[in-house]
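Researcher: We plan to redesign the surface later, but first we want a full-length starting point. Tokens attached.
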């Protein structure tokens, strides 16, 4: 397969190895995180890798990353409460904030920003092609998953 020509104009993506080094998220999901969440994240990273050959897979990767965030919140809600989460993303995020599992500026970065991006992509009005910076949002989600896992583990160890 040939690289998508859109990557070839970016210095940091001059070869497949350079692309992987500079654009594929480096964050690893912690060992303590559920295997389903880790698998979903690895699939998201594979979509990013495939974008080297079909640029628009960045958009697909971001959408998958947003679903990963929602899946993660649902998983930890169930882990804490013993029942499935039936809330929409906004209500679920608010619940996690009220439990002090979303802290400080994470509310703006993780909850508000990602909810806006998610709603835009889950209810599209037009075809969208995202810039490489969309990968930063996926990295942010991965970092936050590790933080949430640590906080939930701490919370459950207090019980």
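Model: Full-length starting sequence:
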């Amino acid at each position: 397969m040939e690289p998508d020509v859109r990557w070839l104009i970016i210095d940091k993506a001059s070869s497949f190895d350079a692309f992987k080094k500079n654009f594929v998220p480096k964050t690893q999901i912690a060992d303590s995180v559920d295997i389903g969440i880790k698998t979903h994240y690895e699939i998201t990273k594979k979509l990013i890798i495939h974008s080297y050959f079909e640029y628009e897979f960045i958009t697909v990767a971001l959408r998958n990353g947003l679903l990963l965030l929602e899946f993660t919140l649902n998983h930890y809600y169930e882990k804490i409460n013993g029942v499935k989460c039936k809330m929409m993303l906004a209500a679920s995020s608010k619940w996690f904030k009220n439990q002090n599992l979303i802290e400080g500026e994470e509310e703006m970065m993780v909850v508000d920003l990602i909810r806006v991006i998610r709603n835009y992509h889950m209810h599209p009005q037009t075809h969208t092609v995202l810039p490489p910076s969309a990968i930063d949002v996926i990295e942010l989600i991965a970092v936050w998953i590790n933080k949430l896992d640590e906080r939930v583990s701490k919370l459950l160890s207090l019980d």
